[in-house]
């Protein structure tokens, strides 16, 4: 699951201040679980001392206070925190005057330009013939249709409504997201060199797959495609990384038919969102897939799942995605050994298969799974 880029946020400081933003629904259950795991890291791993700051955000906060992301939360994140964990948000599917998603706003205000989503299978002892999956999906995080510039007018000819949405793709954002993809492909390959060949999931040269739809959207997706390609074409550092392209519709098809064909996948915001959520089905559940919103100076770990209001407060939520997201947070700020210990603890629990939440076919509670992971640490 390693993303393998050492961030410049800290040089192994002995104390880390982490902002905790549970937000809505099951975020209030899984973020405390992740906090428990961070606090329980073995002392022999030279773990940092953690200072946690609890922060407000979310749709429920908006309903009470008229803002989904308080200025105080932003100020504390910028001035006091080394990183953060975000839970989940219950953004409504219909328009609500004055509301916009706090996680989208966080990405914008903190310039978290890439959403890094590892999708890795854990093969249980009962399924040893199953083919393993190890994909890293990198989603551009600041542009595309998610700039939320929409408008609605009345068509004079028909008297019916017409809705428009502007889409933004820039060379700048595309290149820096592309650079992260190639850097991570190199990093993942470096780690693999220390693994015996017969134990490696990916045995070929590192590869970056560029997802687009430039056969239809020749200007916007065309610019994305050209910009990401230029990262490799203009830098010999990436000569050992293979590069391929995939139209987004055929990407979805191939992702489900032959997921082992992909190493690092890089996509514009909307495509990356859809692909990574769909890929979660390959490894059991949205409840096991983590992510990290990554910028040059800050990282926010965030489970891929939503707020799941149907099970909120019932102690049924799967904490694994949030716990793995805590690992990603540590990894991106340079604590690789500590992150690996979290990944291994989670993998051990999943591999044994005795303590699993209902989304994975088990009957265990959020806290029972968390305790099993703590024991595995």
TrEMBL record:
<dbReference type="GO" id="GO:0006102">
    <property type="term" value="P:isocitrate metabolic process"/>
</dbReference>
<dbReference type="GO" id="GO:0006099">
    <property type="term" value="P:tricarboxylic acid cycle"/>
</dbReference>
<dbReference type="GO" id="GO:0051287">
    <property type="term" value="F:NAD binding"/>
</dbReference>
<dbReference type="GO" id="GO:0009085">
    <property type="term" value="P:lysine biosynthetic process"/>
</dbReference>
<dbReference type="GO" id="GO:0047046">
    <property type="term" value="F:homoisocitrate dehydrogenase activity"/>
</dbReference>
<dbReference type="GO" id="GO:0004449">
    <property type="term" value="F:isocitrate dehydrogenase (NAD+) activity"/>
</dbReference>
<dbReference type="Pfam" id="PF00180">
    <property type="entry name" value="Iso_dh"/>
</dbReference>
<dbReference type="InterPro" id="IPR019818">
    <property type="entry name" value="IsoCit/isopropylmalate_DH_CS"/>
</dbReference>
<keyword id="KW-0520">NAD</keyword>
<dbReference type="GO" id="GO:0005739">
    <property type="term" value="C:mitochondrion"/>
</dbReference>
<feature type="domain" description="Isopropylmalate dehydrogenase-like">
    <location>
        <begin position="17"/>
        <end position="373"/>
    </location>
</feature>
<keyword id="KW-0460">Magnesium</keyword>
<dbReference type="InterPro" id="IPR024084">
    <property type="entry name" value="IsoPropMal-DH-like_dom"/>
</dbReference>
<keyword id="KW-0560">Oxidoreductase</keyword>
<comment type="similarity">
    <text>Belongs to the isocitrate and isopropylmalate dehydrogenases family.</text>
</comment>
<protein>
    <submittedName>
        <fullName>10693_t:CDS:1</fullName>
    </submittedName>
</protein>
<dbReference type="GO" id="GO:0000287">
    <property type="term" value="F:magnesium ion binding"/>
</dbReference>
<keyword id="KW-0479">Metal-binding</keyword>
